[in-house]
């Protein structure tokens, strides 16, 4: 059985087969799973991740050991995220005040 009927047909078939991968072939730089466990290492930042399959809704905490994906519904996650946001906003306000004063 012949799969290709000429060089152009073979090239086209090869390009189609290699260009159309499955979702498993794609690399996703997001949280696809979350933890409910409280983080014990120092947290240096945080950001929200929206649900966009295969990515799940999560709070991504930045720690000295790397990023940790946490469940956004956990009370400690919401509390920690709000504290970090308040500290960030306070720092931004101080920087704006210092810049305009000079």
UniProtKB/TrEMBL annotation:
It comes from Oncorhynchus kisutch. Residues 1-24 form the signal peptide. Pfam families: IL8 (PF00048). Keywords: Cytokine, Signal. One of its GO terms (cellular component) is extracellular space. InterPro entries: Chemokine_IL8-like_dom, Interleukin_8-like_sf. Gene3D superfamilies: 2.40.50.40. This is Chemokine interleukin-8-like domain-containing protein.
